[in-house]
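Retro notes (design track)

What went well: tokenization of the new backbones is finally stable.
What didn't: we kept losing track of which sequence belonged to which structure.
Fix going forward: every design gets posted as structure first, then sequence, in one message. First example under the new rule, 263 residues:
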């Protein structure tokens, strides 16, 4: 026998019993009210009918609609929690990789300049020593370091920007409409803020460090292309170029050569 049927049976039994008992209670209450109203002769029939019409909805409909309202609110809360869990990384509470990709595509298409071009920046932020922390102090401390980094990133971007976790030690940051200077400023703020925020693992203070690779784009380019170029810049930043932060500008007229590449 299918075990799922055995698990569902008590729920249907409870629902059936609830409906039957609720109906019986409502009918019984109606009989009691009518009996009390029509038992004596002090009130005329017209007044009794008005009282019954007022009292019955108060005693029956009020608790019924209160229960329905509470159940509906609980259902909406469960749906919100499920939608949040499906779209976010459970540890850092930023968007997961799939949702990050989807939102970047949507925001990229929606960010159009006066010249009819899409523009903005995509950054890949890599935590240098999160894996070492996980190995030396345990996985929970590694995840805690990622939560701290995610909190710093969120505090240093706009509400319209998109932050997602791409892998175990990488975040993606999409800055729609950002210029070269704005993207560089955001990346530097994030790196400095993470370096200045002490992280404590088992009583030892560890300085967190980031490598950032990014691409400034102007005009249509697929998300995979942006990720490829940003990953290439991250690899160069990881090797020590441009002090751990390297940007590549695509068709950006104001790109500068100082510590950055231009393609």
């Amino acid at each position: 026998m299918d075990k799922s049927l055995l698990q569902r049976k008590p729920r249907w039994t409870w629902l059936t019993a609830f409906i039957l008992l609720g109906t019986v209670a409502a009918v019984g209450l109606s009989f009691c009210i009518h009996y009390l109203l029509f038992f004596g002769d002090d009130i005329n029939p017209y007044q009794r009918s008005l009282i019954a019409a007022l009292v019955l909805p108060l005693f029956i409909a009020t608790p019924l609609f209160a229960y329905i309202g509470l159940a509906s609110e609980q259902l909406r809360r469960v749906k919100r929690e499920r939608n949040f869990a499906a779209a976010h990384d459970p540890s850092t509470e930023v968007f997961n990789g799939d949702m990050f990709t989807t939102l970047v595509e949507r925001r990229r298409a929606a960010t159009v300049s006066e010249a009819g071009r899409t523009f903005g920046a995509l950054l890949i932020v890599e935590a240098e020593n999160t894996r070492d922390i996980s190995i030396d102090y345990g996985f929970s401390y590694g995840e805690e370091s990622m939560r701290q980094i995610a909190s710093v990133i969120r505090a240093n971007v706009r509400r319209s920007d998109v932050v997602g976790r791409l892998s175990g030690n990488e975040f993606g940051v999409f800055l729609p409409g950002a210029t070269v200077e704005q993207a560089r400023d955001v990346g530097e703020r994030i790196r400095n803020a993470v370096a200045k925020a002490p992280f404590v693992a088992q009583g030892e203070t560890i300085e967190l460090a980031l490598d950032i690779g990014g691409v400034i784009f102007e005009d249509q380019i697929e998300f995979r292309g942006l990720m490829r170029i940003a990953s290439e810049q991250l690899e160069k930043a990881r090797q020590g170029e441009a002090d751990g932060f390297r940007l590549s500008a695509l068709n950006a007229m104001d790109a500068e050569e100082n510590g950055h590449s231009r393609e």
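Added context from the reviewer: Confidence is low (pLDDT under 50) at residues 1-8, 252-263.
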